[in-house]
Design goal:
Blueprint (H helix, E strand, L loop, with lengths): L2 H24 L10 H20 L1 H6 L4 H22 L2 H16 L11 H20 L3 H21 L6 H19 L22 H9 L6 E6 L6 E2 L2 E2 H9 L17 E2 L2 E2 L27 E6 L3 H10 L2
Parallel strand pairs: 1-6
Antiparallel strand pairs: 2-3, 4-5
InterPro entries: SCAI (IPR022709)
Pfam families: SCAI
Protein name: Protein SCAI-like
Length: 322
């Protein structure tokens, strides 16, 4: 084997190994305690190795024909894994990590400029925007939501113009859903109001309230699990997250940190100038958010989110969440 072939062959082998492990955890339900946790550890390890390898050998891989959208797909898979862990554990650090990776994909423009004739890649980009919108919504990053919505709308229009034989009705419905969701949510939310999440800066610690402190000292009950669901028809929703469940979800959580509550601009700037991430940097740290949660705060209760479940499904989730 020629020396120049070693790096791309090793990279492809790492991709295939990580993808196989990802397929084992992708469809696991997001409820239940520690379900498939050992699989998640293995798939995270596989993607950490893959991500580090592509960072260390980027010039050789680009020379061998590595596409930018392939880097974006790897980062997107890592974002999916982090978001999946957030849904299973309700640990805010996983949600923040997912946001970091999705934001990096957007700012580094990994999917942009990869050729309008590649429908497969265009669908990957559409799915990326949909996932990023969900993460941004849950984190209340309203400015980023607006940026991504415009990106999604422009991409759908571009796809309809360049792939006339393909029906994009499903993606137009996604666009309509998110627009309706943010319009209704904005209408009934005061811009200057406090966040739904319990914030250490704006609220006192629960143990400092006398009657809570007395109750907590007895250790009678602890709120550890919740099932959030909705049954109404024609609800305002995005994906399977309805507006009422979206608000309840945040009311049962702590802010990831006090500083994270501060609003940040959607577009990065350095010295007042927008940063160009179009270069192949690939420098995204998989542990950037490790110190963004306060260990003194109680853990968030685990939450199972169900959209119009059947009775048997509800019973199964209740049983596995115990």
């Amino acid at each position: 084997m020629a020396e120049e072939d070693v790096v791309p062959k090793t990279f492809r082998a790492l991709v295939e190994s990580a993808d196989r492990k990802f397929a084992r955890v992708r469809d696991l339900p997001s409820y239940g305690r520690a379900q498939g946790q050992h699989y998640f550890q293995k798939v995270f390890k596989a993607y950490m190795r893959l991500w580090k390898y592509q960072q260390e050998h980027r010039p050789e891989l680009v020379k061998a024909g590595l596409n930018r959208w392939e880097i974006g797909e790897i980062a997107g898979r890592i974002g999916q894994l982090y978001f999946g862990q957030y849904m299973r554990t309700s640990e805010a650090r996983f949600l923040v990590e997912a946001y970091i990776f999705y934001e990096a994909i957007l700012k580094r423009r990994y999917f942009e400029g990869c050729g309008v004739k590649d429908l497969r890649v265009r669908f990957k980009e559409l799915r990326f925007y949909a996932r990023f919108l969900l993460v941004s919504l849950i984190l209340n990053r309203t400015e980023m939501v607006k940026v991504v919505v415009e990106k999604l709308r422009a991409l759908i229009d571009d796809c309809k113009a360049n792939f006339r034989e393909t029906n994009f009705k499903e993606w137009k419905l996604v666009e309509q859903e998110i627009l309706r969701f943010i319009n209704i949510d904005t209408t009934f939310t005061i811009p200057s109001s406090r966040p739904f999440r319990y914030c250490a800066i704006l609220n006192c610690h629960p143990n400092s309230v006398p009657y809570v402190a007395r109750f907590h000292a007895k250790k009678v009950l602890k709120f550890r699990d919740a099932i959030l669901m909705s049954y109404h028809r024609n609800e305002v929703k995005f994906a399977e997250l309805t507006l009422d469940v979206y608000r309840m979800l945040q009311c049962l959580e702590w802010e990831p940190s006090g500083s994270f509550y501060q609003k940040h601009p959607a577009e990065p700037k350095e010295n007042g100038v927008a940063v160009d991430y179009s270069g192949a940097s690939g420098l995204i740290d998989m542990n950037l958010a490790a110190d963004m949660t306060d260990p003194a705060l109680p853990p968030n209760p685990r939450k199972a989110i169900l959209y119009r479940p059947s009775l048997t499904h509800l019973i199964a989730v209740s049983y596995k969440s115990c």
